[in-house]
Amino acid sequence: MEQAKPYGTVLIKAAKIIDCIAENPNISLQEIAKSCEMTMSTTLKILDTLNLIGYVKKSEEKTYQLGAKLIRYANRNIEQIDLIEQTLPYLVKLQEKIDETIHLGVLSNSEIYYVNKLEPKFQSIRMSSKVGISRPLYSSAMGKAVLATMSEKEVDEYLESHELKPYTANTITNPLKLKQELSEIKEQKVAYDDEEMESDIFCVGTVILKGKQIIGAMSISLPKFRLTTSYKERLIAAILETREQIETEIK
């Protein structure tokens, strides 16, 4: 099988430069060029671009170190990995107790980003969701749980900057109605997606807090036809118990 050829040699050179700076903070242009076996001209052009987009930072002494944007990406990834590892034992227990789809999400760019998913073991119907996709805050269970934890000012800012588009006939697109639901979520500590993202799908979700900081959210998703009043109560009790266990673990 023919090996795939890389696209864009400049990206490979940029990666080399970033690796070099990561291993040698406050390194000079000359040292980078020598270490990466590139000409000074090529190295400088790539460094200027990396500096422009925040991946490297040039000091007054004309030395280079990793930029704030690249470090922020790295730290965010580490935080996500930590959250996945810390919550996994509890989500596994929740999934064993409630044989439905379990999601773990984090807040990213005013959306819920799925970072983990546990499939049911004995159910034939599976959710279409995947790790790596995102959902709006206003129409998802995890998203509404996050919104309910925010201040009134933050919620107003979110509503001013986001159009509440309908995904189904059940999607809440009225800001006043959404605010009313957020008040109820704040009291109950759980949120629902009642066929608001997808028809025939029901989700119950809640946030995960470290102190007062939102570090994630989780949900249980299932086909709506399996939902009964007593089963809904079981779902709520189970997810709140799991939330309490996780928050105790990550204090």
Description:
Residues 69-251 form the IclR-ED domain. It comes from Enterococcus cecorum. Keywords: DNA-binding, Transcription, Transcription regulation. InterPro entries: GAF-like_dom_sf, HTH_MetabolicPath_Reg, Tscrpt_reg_IclR_C, Tscrpt_reg_IclR_N, WH-like_DNA-bd_sf, WH_DNA-bd_sf. One of its GO terms (molecular function) is DNA binding. The chain is an alpha+beta fold. The protein folds into two domains: 9-73, Arc Repressor Mutant, subunit A (Orthogonal Bundle); 77-250, Beta-Lactamase (2-Layer Sandwich), CATH 3.30.450.40. The chain is 48% helix and 21% strand. The protein is built from eight helices and nine strands. It has helices at residues 9-23, 29-36, 40-52, 68-97, 141-149, 152-161, 175-188, 229-249, and strands at residues 27-28, 56-58, 63-66, 101-108, 111-118, 134-136, 191-194, 201-210, 213-223. Helix 2 crosses helix 3. The longest helix has 30 residues, at 68-97. The radius of gyration is 23 Å and the shape is elongated.
Give the gist of this structure.
48% of the residues lie in helices and 21% in strands.
Could you tell me the number of beta strands? 9
Helix content: 40-55%
- N to C succession of SSEs: HEHHEEHEEEHHHEEEH
Silhouette:
elongated
Poorly predicted regions: none
Largest sheet: 6 strands, antiparallel
Using the coordinates above, name the CATH class of the largest domain.
Answer: Alpha Beta
Total tally of structural domains: 2
Question: Which architecture of the largest domain would the CATH scheme give at its second level?
Answer: 2-Layer Sandwich
CATH superfamily of the largest domain: GAF domain
Radius of gyration: 23 Å
Question: Structural class of the helices, strands and pairings?
Answer: alpha+beta
Order of strands across the main sheet = 6-5-4-9-8-7
Strand content: 15-25%
Question: What is the multimeric organization of the chains shown?
Answer: single chain
Within the CATH hierarchy, at the fold level, what is the topology of the largest domain? Beta-Lactamase
